[in-house]
Amino acid sequence: MSLSNRSTLTQYLIEQRRRFPSASGDLNALLLEVALACKSIARSVAFGELGGVMGDASVDAAQGGAVNVQGEVQKKLDVLSNDVFVRMNEWAGHLAGMASEEMEQPSQIPAQYPRGKYLLVFDPLDGSSNIDVNVSVGSIFSILRAPDDVIASGRDVVEADFLQPGATQVAAGYALYGPTTMLVLSVGNGVAGFTLHPNLGEFVLTHPDIQVPPDTREFAINASNSRFWEPPVKRYVDECLAGATGPRGKDFNMRWIASMVAEAHRILMRGGVFMYPRDTKDPSKPGRLRLLYEANPIGFIMEQAGGRASTGRQPMLGVVPSSLHQRIGLVFGSRNEVERIERYHHEPVKNDFNTPLFAERSLFRN
Ligand SMILES: O=P(O)(O)OC[C@H]1O[C@](O)(COP(=O)(O)O)[C@@H](O)[C@@H]1O
Ligand SMILES: [Mg+2]
Ligand SMILES: [Mg+2]
């Protein structure tokens, strides 16, 4: 494939930075390190069983599987991907510290390396349940500016340094390890998608200025949780399922990949709405997905692409985080659908749609 009329990721980043002549170039360098980490993970994913990276991570034979701070069993690839992110980003001097789904506490930059002005927060492997069945997985990252006193003093980072609303993100993105490996990112000026050229090993700009269509006929939700949903979510899904004969007056299609990063990508490409809403399944968990390294970076990308991201009740990017591994209800995608779901959360619960006729037709009725 000829590259003559396409930019590489490096060229794209340089062109973006030219718009800010005072920028030091640190952000570009950091993004290229992140992209390199993603390429390395893409290779491991591609080797699959041949690379010995499938299955659960084990502490040792006697103790059994490793468990992360979320209480989730870690896959080998979760651990390997986390190590790749840490090792490939700690040495270059752009970071003040890192935080990850797989690490209970923030990771410090080792003493032998210089410290920089950014914080990197990541989900090294999203969609872990899909690793062993050869379905698309990805990595999600968010870049924040470190607080001024961290930059000035070079002190160790603490949890509070990372508790910044998503609107303050300097850049965010994800890599998708699917039939092709793609990197999708925003540096706060729209969203661009890059495809990994398998021979050159370069990310090549293939999807400039991605825009999420404002309307959709496709939704994604784990329907096995329907008995735990709150009324506004039930109402929204019931109305979609009622299709052309219900209040929406049109048929909807449904998808569930169980890799949020892959769902986000589909929605960026052709619209749709994704919901992992707050529910009553486990009262100790106000949602399944994590604010700092899942909801915020994906939310930033969606908003930059003209879509919307929300808790269901308020814009995601306005939420002030309370802890590093905070969970939250997440709704994102086509703007008009997300706004509708928010509206349903603010309206009093309506019963007129729960007519006996509709009850017969509803698949997900309690
Ligand atoms: O088991 P469920 O309900 O299908 O959950 C799927 C969700 O869990 C996740 O895999 C969570 O991410 P991790 O794999 O990083 O823990 C999301 O990508 C996905 O949306
Ligand atoms: Mg995840
Ligand atoms: Mg993960």
What hetero molecules are in the model?
A: 1,6-di-O-phosphono-beta-D-fructofuranose, magnesium ion
The end-to-end span amounts to: 54 Å
Q: Strand content of the residues, in percent?
A: 15-25%
For this structure, the CATH topology of the largest domain is Fructose-1,6-Bisphosphatase, Chain A, domain 1
Find the count of extended strands (DSSP E, 2+ residues): 17
Structural class comes to: alpha+beta
Which strand order do you get reading across the main beta sheet?
A: 4-3-5-6-7-8-9-10
Q: What is the CATH homologous superfamily assignment of the largest domain? A: Fructose-1,6-Bisphosphatase, subunit A, domain 1
| Uncertain parts | 354-366
What is the typical, i.e. mean, pLDDT? 92
Shape descriptor reads: globular
Write down the Rg: 21 Å
Order of helices and strands: HHEEHEEEEHEEEEEHEHEEHEEEHH
Report the top-level CATH class of the largest domain: Alpha Beta
Q: What is the CATH architecture annotation of the largest domain?
A: 2-Layer Sandwich
Biggest sheet architecture: 8 strands, mixed
Number of helices, where a helix is a run of at least 4 consecutive DSSP H or I residues: 9
Helical residues, percent: 25-40%
Description:
The chain is α+β, with helices and mostly antiparallel strands and 366 residues long. It has two domains: 9-207, Fructose-1,6-Bisphosphatase, subunit A, domain 1 (Fructose-1,6-Bisphosphatase, Chain A, domain 1, 2-Layer Sandwich); 218-361, 3-Layer(aba) Sandwich (D-Maltodextrin-Binding Protein, domain 2), CATH 3.40.190. Helices cover 29% and strands 20% of the residues. It is built from nine helices and 17 strands. It has helices spanning 9-18, 26-47, 76-89, 148-153, 231-242, 260-270, 291-304, 335-346, 356-361, and strands spanning 58-60, 64-65, 95-100, 107-108, 118-126, 137-145, 171-177, 181-186, 192-196, 203-207, 218-220, 253-254, 273-276, 289-290, 308-310, 327-328, 330-333. It has an eight-stranded mixed sheet, sandwiched between helices. Strand 8 (181-186) and strand 9 form a beta hairpin. The longest helix has 22 residues, at 26-47. The chain is globular. The N and C termini lie far apart (54 Å). 1,6-di-O-phosphono-beta-D-fructofuranose (FBP) binds next to strand 5.
